[in-house]
């Protein structure tokens, strides 16, 4: 059989993983595809840099034109990341009918619609399993294996950096700054950790998952986002006392008022399957009307895990080429569902307050909550230093708007120093 | 678009689930497939029996010939179970080039080779996601999403009945007979529970998974099988003391001496992701050379969960028909790997013995083990009734053959009353 020729755009962490897998597992891959899969060009910015892998230097090029004009190259693998020039290259390739494989969540979460439209118009295959949760199969399972279901809910741990940090805080009692430094030293967090720590990375992935699950285009801008930087060792200890674990969850639900999409620190019961997903592992919990609850677990990032997903996509694209069959799993956003404002979302809430330690304080707080129809499920009051006390409350299910209104009232009470923390409680 | 016409063979639990999903989610399914999917005939033995669902009685037929001779029916969905006549019907359909969807693990585990050959010869699609682990996506993820990997190991909880029973024994301290009666009362175990309890059901599913994972045909007869009927509340209590949990695991490994395939009660560490899979839930843990560890979790049986997998397959078959594209994911058993005899398999072992409570007994036992090169990792000795004692040991990793030889020596010691239990320890 004629080999299927592939070009890599980029040779960073994921690119190296793809190269290693395609060369290291070549014989099996050829058998499973029906033809050898060959990397014939690799686009890099700097032709001379040492990349820590052995490769034939003649594969490297710094000219995208060289690649796109080569009629023998049928699959373009974009693993450079970022929006520009990745988007321009990918759009160009799709318009020319070349299959594209990408792991670029930023690009899909913002420009998914135009990418699918370009692929649909030319009949090119467009594959992006590696864009969410690294090596964990999730895009194809959602699109195919669970296609018989109306998906009701997705809850996922889809950012490894923050899960590593929260796991360390939970299991070893470390505080936020300390664990962030450790994560940076280990290469799990970047020098500027904002995108991970503030939840943006998870929000991009959630936009992609929710679009597929609910058949309606969700973009990054639709997702309500809160990061973990305000989580303290103190809240983690209280969570344990209440039999919860704190995770940064990406949550998407279909509701009568529209699609809820939010990323925020969340307390979940210790018995929940996501509660024991620790370290850099990711897991995605899905509820379908037929299948019930399913969960997918594995490594959400890294050279070889993400490479595993990208190469699986390359193999799928190659199979279509070998069998001369057009790609027919295109865009699945055949509906336009409204996005539900977060103010209308319902949740239980954990709230921690610092107050004056004197009689009547709790009553005034409870009165303020009651005034906004927020009912309390449990209250713990602890004396702290001097004349201060700490109150920890968990509410019953309530609308976000009511909770925020109540918190504004509580904040104004003279006996309340400050609202230290407010974390949603889910999964019960 | 012209509807894709489907016939169901059988209307038992899974058949009803398929009917409910195809009719209940019809609009979404039509959108996702690109054409409506219509059940046009249902084969049943008794046309008059009440099946607890509302359906047009003219759909029912007791003649397979009616179905197979209908040129408009393109997808045959076999959900009758058993080998005959299911195998004859399915072979006939495949030979005629009709796509077949089946959830029949018994048939595939025994006759997979000839089924794939028939499908390959005619170009018919052959789909069987529902045959393993109910609604959990596993066949397609193994064949496609993890295709870039050399799979090294599979460890799965793939029988819901035994997992329910072991969970109850672990969490509520019930004994085997008591929990079996409860499982039967709840409909989780059949009147004759042999196939579940003795591990045969799990062995069939493991044969299917291992064939895909290692690209070499494994049949039911290749799988070493031990059931859970000898597991006592006592062993479960000792497992807890040793920080283990007992699960009925289906294990497949690729080793230099061949493929290991075995189903048996297994102690795994409490921190292992499979340890917290309780009740009727299933989970499959897979280790690939690129992806690392991944796990798939969900409901392994039931009308709607298994229906979810079967309908996903029907939708895949229908997409191929709509796009006029032949099925091209055929048999992946392109190698012939030997099956490793269980005598050569390596494991740690938990062993419980009843012995005379007098000095020197432990020394004689330890000597017998040492003689067969079995080294002991830990030993607990407890006084029981009268002059008897109980010894619980965990070995280091050792070949099964050596362990069995050692047990034969130990059995002959005059101070040893009996070997009460021997359970493999894995996953550390």
Task: Show the helix and strand layout.
The structure is a homodimer of 428-residue chains.
Chain A: E1 4-9, H1 13-24, H2 26-33, E2 37-43, E3 60-61, H3 64-68, E4 73-78, H4 86-95, E5 99-102, H5 105-122, E6 126-127, H6 139-145, E7 151-157, H7 160-172, H8 176-185, H9 194-197, H10 200-214, E8 224-225, H11 233-241, E9 244-255, E10 258-269, E11 281-288, E12 292-299, H12 303-322, E13 346-356, H13 361-371, E14 376-383, E15 388-395, E16 398-399, H14 400-412, E17 416-425
Parallel strand pairs in A: 1-2, 1-4, 2-3, 4-5, 5-6, 8-10, 10-17
Antiparallel strand pairs in A: 7-9, 7-11, 9-10, 11-12, 13-15, 13-16, 13-17, 14-15
Helix pairs in contact in A: 1-12, 4-5, 5-10, 7-8, 13-14
Describe this structure in words.
The first copy, chain A, has 428 residues and is of the alpha/beta class. Chain A folds into 3 domains: 4-135 and 303-322, Rossmann fold (3-Layer(aba) Sandwich); 143-299, 2-Layer Sandwich (Dihydrodipicolinate Reductase, domain 2); 343-425, Alpha-Beta Plaits. Chain A is 36% helix and 27% strand. Chain A is built from 14 helices and 17 strands. In chain A, the strands form 2 sheets. In chain A, strands 7, 8, 9, 10, 11, 12, 13, 14, 15, 16 and 17 form an 11-stranded mixed β-sheet that branches. The first copy, chain A, has a 6-stranded parallel β-sheet with strand order 3-2-1-4-5-6, with helices on both faces. In chain A, helix 13 (361-371) runs antiparallel to helix 14. Chain A is elongated and about 85 Å long. The termini of chain A are far apart. The interface between A and B is large, with 56 and 56 residues. Chains A, B: Residues 350-421 form the ACT domain. Chains A, B: Its cofactor is a metal cation. Chains A, B: This is Homoserine dehydrogenase.
């Amino acid at each position: 059989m004629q080999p299927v020729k592939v070009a890599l755009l980029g040779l960073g962490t994921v690119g190296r993983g793809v190269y290693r897998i395609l060369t290291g597992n070549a014989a099996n891959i050829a058998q499973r595809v029906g033809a050898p899969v060959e990397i014939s060009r690799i686009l890099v910015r700097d032709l001379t840099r040492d990349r820590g892998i052995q490769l034939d230097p003649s594969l490297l090029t710094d000219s995208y034109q060289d690649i796109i004009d080569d009629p023998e190259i049928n699959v373009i693998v974009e693993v450079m990341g970022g929006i520009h020039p990745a988007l321009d290259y990918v759009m160009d390739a799709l318009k020319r009918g070349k299959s594209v494989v990408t792991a670029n969540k930023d690009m899909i979460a913002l420009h998914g619609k135009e990418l699918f439209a370009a692929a649909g118009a030319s009949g090119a295959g467009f594959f992006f399993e590696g864009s969410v949760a690294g090596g964990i199969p999730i895009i194809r399972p959602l699109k195919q294996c669970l296609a018989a279901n109306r998906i009701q809910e997705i809850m996922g741990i889809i950012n490894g950096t923050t899960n590593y940090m929260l796991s360390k805080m939970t299991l070893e009692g470390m505080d936020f700054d300390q664990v962030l430094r450790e994560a940076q030293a280990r290469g799990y967090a970047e020098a500027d950790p904002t995108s991970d720590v503030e939840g943006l990375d998870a929000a991009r992935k959630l936009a992609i998952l929710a679009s597929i699950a609910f058949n309606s285009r969700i973009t990054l801008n639709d997702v309500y986002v809160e990061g973990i930087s305000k989580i303290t060792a103190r809240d983690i200890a209280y969570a344990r006392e209440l039999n919860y674990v704190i995770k940064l969850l990406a949550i998407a639900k279909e509701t009568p008022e529209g699609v809820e999409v939010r990323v925020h620190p969340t307390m979940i019961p210790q018995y929940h399957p996501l509660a024991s997903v620790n370290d850099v592992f990711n897991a995605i919990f899905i509820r379908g009307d037929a299948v019930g609850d399913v969960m997918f677990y594995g490594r959400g990032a890294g050279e070889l895990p993400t490479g595993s997903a990208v190469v699986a996509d390359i193999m799928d694209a190659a199979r279509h080429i070998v069998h001369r069959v057009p790609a027919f799993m295109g865009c699945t956003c055949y509906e336009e569902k409204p996005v539900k404002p977060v103010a209308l979302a319902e949740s239980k809430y954990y709230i921690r307050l610092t107050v004056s330690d004197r009689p009547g304080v709790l009553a005034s707080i409870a009165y303020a909550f009651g005034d906004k129809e927020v009912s309390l499920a449990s209250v713990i009051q602890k004396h702290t230093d001097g004349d201060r006390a700490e109150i920890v409350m968990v509410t019953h299910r309530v609308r976000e708007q009511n909770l925020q209104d109540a918190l504004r009232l509580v904040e104004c009470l003279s006996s309340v120093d400050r609202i230290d923390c407010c974390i949603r409680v889910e999964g019960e």
